[in-house]
Amino acid sequence: MEETKRYLQSLLFQNKIDIPESKQTLFEDFINNENNITAVKIIKEKQRMIMQNWNLKNRIDDITHQSVFLPNGTVNKIYEAKIDFAQLGWIDFTSFEIQNLEETGLTFDHDSKLLFGIPIISGDLKIKLLFKIEGESEETPFHEKIMTVIVNPDPKSLWKNIESDRNAPFAKDDHVAISSTFLDKKIVVASKRGRSHANVGSFREDDFAFKNLDSNGWSVLGVSDGAGSAALSRKGSKLACDTVVDYFEQNLDKENLKDFDEILLEHYKKTDLETSKKISHFVYNTLLKAAHFVNQKIEEFAGNIDEELKKFHATLIFALVKKYDFGYAILTFGVGDCPIGLLNKDLTEVTLMNFIDVGEFGGGTRFITMPEIFQSEKLSSRFGFKLVDDFSYLMLMTDGIYDPKFVVEANLEKIEKWNEFLSDLKGNNQDNSKVDFDDENGDVAAQLSNWMDFWSPGNHDDRTLAIIY
Amino acid sequence: MRRLPIYFLIDISESMVGEPIQQVEEGLATIIQALKTDPHALETVYVSIIVFAGQPKTLVPLQEIVSFYPPKFPIGSGTSLSKGLGHLMYELRSNIVKTTYEVKGDWKPIVFLFTDGVPTDDTQAAISEWKNNWQRTANLIAVSFGNETDTKLLGQLTENVLHFKNTNVQSYKEFFKWVTDSIKTSSISVENNSSGFELAKLDGETISKIDLTKEEPNKQYVDDNYVVLSGKCQNTKRPYLMKYRKNIAPSIYAGIELASKNYKLVGAYQVDNNYFELADNSNFNNKVNTEELFGAPTCPCCGNQIAFAVCVCQKIHCIGDEQISTCPWCNNQGSYGYGEGGFDVNRTQG
Ligand SMILES: [Zn+2]
Ligand SMILES: [Zn+2]
């Protein structure tokens, strides 16, 4: 009764109707009228219902707009994510189900609220959550909420392997692998086109060349990495390697070498400042001439066909090795970011034979085709010399191997890293791919080439690895 | 592996409310999706999203694209480009890895700056810091959304100042495709040992390069292209924005020129409480007269007929049929009648 009275009083008041003293009895009758009582009751109820409906509507709207984060998945990789109802504040759900999982490879477990499986398609999967909340009647249809599960493609599936154009100028093979002898040791080299080139059908830009120079007892090995941004670097790298071999074949004159043999013997017997100086002098002069010759030859070649020199940009590392009764003399030179590593006989020590050119940000390397490298104060650090009784491995590689396997320069100085690398080569890897360094193994080149197919995300450069063992 | 860091520095001032921000939100999701179809990008690109209004905020910290989840973009008050740039430089300083003997460095980072307005603060200090410390170590592409961005100012940051005509959904699609292509080409070119950055080809239609020698500087601290009013819903207590766009064509009616400047309703939008977090704290007192505003929206939060009621506290809220309204800003109660003629209301900075 009180309720009816208050309601009617305020209704009249809101409509600017005042009830004077004289009308009080009339008003009392009015509020006691069954019809009015019922009407007020109905109004109250309807208002309650409206409020409730509004709250429900608002709540459902909130749920539909609420952002739900589900971890990303990858095609062919096990996926598991719990949809945490409590954390999402979905404690007022009376019933729910998940739809749109057909053909995704995912399943939803209603009890554990676990979304799991092995995704078979990539993309932003739109998953539908159907739900009802407290306060809604049985008959109310389900509300829909769309949630996104992002499934990444398997990166391996995205790379194409398009053959390079055999008819283009300076065409070269996409893969080369070869084994042979090097002095009294063995050599195996494999050079492979990187995924980035395979993906667009462009050429392998790495190259290598080696030769045993029988006339003077020296052997030479060169490895080069053509700059990706240079259109004809595939030719640049080939020219660099071939030229350095040619140079030594033709220019290591016998007189000069005889002197050097004597200096070395002297040095072997008694290492002092004097002999060290003489050696440095020889190494510097001989190798600098070779490097300079390479630079000149490429420039000449470019000029002859009327092309810019920078189109031939390529790095170059090379080693000149000779076997003496008392050991091996190893002379090296390097421009660019390709390392030369010398591992001692019992694998306890590594000597990094060259200085690596790397920039502050990626891509800041130097090339043999840049005349300024011969003027730089760094020039002397480009040469290396070592006289050893024997060694187990001498390795020359391009950054396509160095980047994924050693990652940073510092690791090249660590013997543990080289031992890991060796163990990797010998089969300790995901693919169980193995290179057998037995002298009798005739399959070694194919094995190395095979090993070189290892997968490493983000590393898709050409790969070249030369091993003297 | 070397990372290719891509930063998006995005203006989320009120004028972006509605379609623009929605398109940016979807656009970025599409960019990432498209990059995932490119094997280079998938393996090397890292993405970060920084937003700025009166305040800056890192919406997505630098992360590889496989773990990227498209964020919901907030809207804030003001356009503090200097704070946005400052925050960007802070993020670059803390995240970009330089090559050293022991560490594998990143590729040169790329920054896309999207802005649709005029900074509401002084940007000189931030711009000189950018010039001195970052211009050479990062590639910045400034993209102006709409016609009246201060391009002269953007030109001090980079020579790559582009104009994007955000006319319809299709142009947004083309624009984000262009951004994607630019990232794709650069994720190849950096790998190929070049440190430069290649933009995808411009079509000149949707996106065009701005001739920086021609533009006149624009020196105002309120973005005048839009009037955005912020209100609060009486029922839900949530904030919302009402956006009006400046009429470009002179409105001549029956030979009589109307108010020289007027604004037409674009729409009313619900925003979340981030709006206050990202707002400039300083007290601005910019008024607009309601006579200049055409169109009155309903409340985007509760559907109340009138979203544009002004309380004695000067703030805007929605009203319905109720006799007595309670202002959600100051809790003042009162009843409303329709005002005669125009009155001044506070506008946001834009
Ligand atoms: Zn409202
Ligand atoms: Zn108020």
Describe this protein's structure:
- The complex is a heterodimer of chains A (469) and B (350).
- Chain A is of the alpha+beta class and 469 residues long.
- Chain A is 35% helix and 25% strand.
- Chain A folds into three domains: 1-65, no CATH class; 73-158, Immunoglobulins (Immunoglobulin-like); 175-468, Phosphatase 2c, domain 1, CATH 3.60.40.
- Chain A contains twelve helices and 18 strands.
- Chain A has a six-stranded antiparallel beta sheet with strand order 8-9-18-17-14-15.
- Chain B is an alpha/beta fold and 350 residues long.
- In chain B, 22% of the residues lie in helices and 27% in strands.
- Chain B contains seven helices and 19 strands.
- In chain B, the strands form five sheets. In chain B, strands 3-2-1-4-5-6-7 form a seven-stranded mixed beta sheet, with helices on both faces. A six-stranded mixed beta sheet of chain B has the order 14-12-9-8-16-15, with no helix packed on it.
- In chain B, strand 4, helix 4 (124-133) and strand 5 (139-145) form a beta-alpha-beta unit.
- The longest helix of chain B is centred in the middle third of the chain and has 21 residues, at 169-189.
- Chain B is elongated.
- The A-B interface holds A 14, 54, 58, 67, 69, 72, 74, 122-124, 148, 150, 152-153, 155, 158-159, 195-196, 199, 227-229, 358-365, 403-404, 407-410, 456-461 and B 1-3, 29, 33, 36-40, 42-44, 66-70, 72, 98-108, 137, 188-195, 235-236, 323.
- One zinc ion (ZN) binds next to loops of chain B.
According to DSSP, the number of beta strands of chain B is 19
SSE string of chain B, helix = H, strand = E? Answer: EHHEEHEHEHEHEEEEEEHEEEEEEE
Count of the domains of chain B: 2
Distance between the termini of chain A: 106 Å
User: Could you spell the SSE succession of chain A in H and E letters?
Assistant: HHHEEHEEEEEHEEHEEHHHEEEEEEHHHE
Q: At the fourth CATH level, what is the homologous superfamily of the largest domain in chain B?
A: von Willebrand factor, type A domain
With strands numbered from the N-terminus, the spatial order across the biggest sheet of chain A is 8-9-18-17-14-15
Total tally of structural domains of chain A = 3
The SS-based structural class of chain B is alpha/beta
- Describe the strand arrangement of the main beta sheet of chain B, using strand numbers: 3-2-1-4-5-6-7
**Could you tell me the strand content of chain B as a percent range?**
25-35%
